[in-house]
């Protein structure tokens, strides 16, 4: 079972991928992690990638393909979760070829769909206790006593600089731009399945399981 997992930042893609790894023994392949691992290992491809990155250039599709090929050779029957790859139609075609060469094929492209307005509200409203780290939300989980942490009683709170509306909207727009070139490619082949990413972690996981087991 080889899948691509898509979803904008904040949709819980990382959490779902971790679950699939833990429960099904699937391997998550993100190009960033792969590149870092290859460079650290000092393999011939890793050394090539390192030289390119040190020169401040983008790692070519050929190098990324070679890396994915290596990882696929080690991947077992449980399958692979592609995360952040492919980004272009050319990469999507290259991936098909890499899989076919190994007698594999993509089973599903699962997209965690979010309600953008709701996601903005969820993320932009987050804050936490500056002392004990307890999490709060402007709308959904205010401290029981206004201005005092339920857990430790302190009056100091903090917000992550990234948790603001503008940053969230920018990240959502980037996500749409990144997936726009590849979604139609997979739509045409009937591989795309959409999951409601606004549900609880367990609900989303259950929907994904259902797709994988169907
Ligand atoms: Zn506290």
Structure commentary:
- α2 crosses α3 (44-54), α2 packs across α4 (61-74) and α6 (116-124) packs antiparallel against α7 (165-179).
- The longest helix is centred in the C-terminal third of the chain and has 15 residues, at 165-179.
- Helices cover 49% and strands 16% of the residues.
- The chain has a five-stranded parallel sheet with strand order 2-3-1-4-8, sandwiched between helices. Strands 6-5-7 form a three-stranded antiparallel sheet.
- It is of the alpha/beta class and 214 residues long.
- Bound molecules: zinc ion.
- Zinc ion is lined by residues 129, 131-132, 134, 149, 151-152, 154.
- Zinc ion binds at residues 129, 131-132, 134, 149, 151-152, 154.
Instruction: List each distinct ligand once.
Output: zinc ion
Instruction: State the distance separating the first and last CA atoms.
Output: 11 Å
What does the average pLDDT come to? 92
Shape: globular
Q: Roughly how much helix do the residues carry, as a percent range?
A: 40-55%
Record field, number of beta strands: 8
Order of helices and strands: EHEHHHEHEHEEEHHEH
Widest sheet: strand ordering: 2-3-1-4-8
Low-confidence stretches: none
Strand content: 15-25%
Task: Report the C-alpha radius of gyration, rounded.
Answer: 20 Å
What count of helical segments does DSSP give?
A: 9
The biggest beta sheet is recorded as: 5 strands, parallel
Label the structural class: alpha/beta
């Amino acid at each position: 079972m080889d899948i691509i997992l898509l979803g904008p930042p904040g949709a819980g893609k990382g959490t779902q991928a971790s679950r699939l790894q833990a429960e099904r023994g699937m391997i998550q392949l993100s190009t960033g992690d792969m590149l870092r691992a290859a460079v650290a290992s000092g393999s011939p491809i890793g050394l090539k990638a390192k030289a390119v990155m040190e020169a401040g250039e983008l790692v070519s599709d050929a190098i990324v393909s070679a890396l994915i090929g290596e990882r696929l050779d080690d991947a077992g029957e449980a399958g692979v979760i592609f995360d952040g790859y492919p980004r272009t139609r050319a990469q999507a075609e290259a991936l098909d070829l890499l899989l076919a060469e190994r007698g594999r094929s993509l089973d599903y492209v699962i997209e965690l769909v979010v309600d953008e307005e709701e996601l903005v509200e969820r993320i932009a409203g987050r804050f936490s206790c500056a002392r004990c780290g307890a999490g709060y939300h402007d709308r959904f989980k205010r401290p029981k006593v206004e201005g005092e942490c339920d857990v430790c009683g302190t009056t100091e709170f903090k917000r992550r600089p990234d948790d603001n509306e503008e940053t969230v909207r920018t990240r959502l727009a980037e996500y749409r731009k990144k997936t726009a070139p590849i979604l139609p490619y997979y739509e045409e082949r009937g591989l795309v399945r959409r999951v409601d990413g606004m549900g609880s972690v367990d609900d989303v996981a259950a929907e994904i399981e259902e797709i994988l087991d169907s």
